[in-house]
Amino acid sequence: MAFLSVITGSRISKLAKVNKFCRLNKTIMGDCSYIANGGRVNNAEIGKFCSIGPDVRIGLGKHPIRDYVSTHPAFYSKSNASGLSFSNRDKFNESEQVVIGNDVWIGQGAIVCDGVHIGDGACVAAGAVVAKNVEPYALVGGVPARFIRYRFDVDTIERLLKLRWWDKDLSWIKEHWELFSDVENFLIESEKSGEA
Q: Which fold is adopted by the domain 1-60+96-151?
């Protein structure tokens, strides 16, 4: 565990890295993924080879904004998180799991709201607030985050999703590392060798 980081109720791969001043709760983190300094993650599943920038916030919890008279937890949560509760039971689900695919990049200071699913290969721009699902290999940015473009054409995305290179043995990845800088050559060589 990194200096001054707190990890509770989580399963972090031995090949993953959590940097300084992070807080992770109820989080699963796959092989070779990392979270940079100051990350906060709650109730999330993070795939393999994900790059999560500094000060990213994932799964911060939510408050009811419809139907309830007040958004204050004293009226719907028995957990007493605010120091006060009138409720003798939990009446509102304050946390929905976030699912982040494989090979996802999330830029500095981005916020990923509860219940969001981010597809394999997607990129989230620094400072974005992601309140809706993100398709595989999509680039999103802004507040709220909006679709910008796809990283590759539809055919290339389909081929990458079929190959699922992140599930290959690390020895395979190590052997083919130089191909990762040219997506077309990578796919051709992988398909030639029967890997796809």
A: UDP N-Acetylglucosamine Acyltransferase; domain 1 (2.160.10)
What does the block give as tokens for 99?
Answer: 């699912």
Enter the DSSP assignment of 159: H
Per this entry, what is the length of the chain?
A: 196
One-letter identity of residue 181: S
Instruction: Name the one residue in this structure whose structure tokens are 């109720």.
Output: 9
Dist CA 154 CA 11 (whole Å): 34
Q: Can you tell me which residue has the tokens 């008279």?
A: 69
Summarised one tens digit per residue, pLDDT across range 23-72 is 999 999 999 999 999 999 999 999 999 999 999 999 998 888 888 888 88
Give the side-chain half-sphere CA count within 13 A for 31: 7
Q: Which residues touch 123 (CB under 8 Å, ≥6 apart)?
A: 104, 105, 106, 107, 138, 139, 140, 151
Q: What is the pTM of this model?
A: 0.92
